[in-house]
Amino acid sequence: MLSGRAYNGGMIPDWQLPPGVDRGLWDYLHAADMVAGYDGQTRASPLAAADVAFCEATFPTPGRLVDLGCGTGRLCARFAAKGYDCVGVDLSDEMLAKARENAPAVTWVKANLVDLSELPAGSFDYAACLFSTLGMVRGAENRATVVANAFRLLRPGGRFVLHAHNRYFRGLGRGRVWGQRWKTWLGRADAGDITMSQAYGGAPLTLHHFTRRGVVRLLGGAGFAVREVRAVGADGAPATGARVYGWLVLAERAS
User: Fold this and answer.
1) How far apart are CA 28 and CA 26, in angstroms?
2) CATH code at 111?
């Protein structure tokens, strides 16, 4: 259930789309070709390896872990094998079906990250929202709600890992980067939103890219204390300046 309503795959009117979801994201979540190749893509991605390694370093002892936007379950499968009690949350039936194949013992929940009311407060030791997941959520208010939900789900002292993309990464192209700098300086509501065509068809997909300061502010606004911000390049290695593809951020809910 999502906000009291069930959302099934396939075409639905725009006005029925869940909060924080636009047509491009809906089409992406239900693209069978994307799901079929997703595991292979993440296995080959150095960034996917980097964020899992970061979680392994910062979630040191077995406990309850929730993966917000779990996809086909790469994080939960890894940690469940280590003895963690894992819950994976995603909006895509197709992704969750593959996740159940990958890790049958994990608890998989279909839900919109903007509404996680079915999960009890203070019930997890660790939470993660990896790769571009938070950036896929449309609207600053909805993204803030996702982060607030992560805070609510954690016990005091619980840890949250967020992976956010850099809006000034040089790989986006000089024109697009300068456009983002201008929009950010002007305080435009669409600053950070970058739209691109999808490889799997469907409407164009918009991803929100962040600034380092914006990520820290977003987490702090939800009540988190930021403990570490690690800048990484597209190859998953430490990076500086315009080579920074994004940040792996460790935040903690204070005791």
Assistant:
1) 5
2) 3.40.50.150
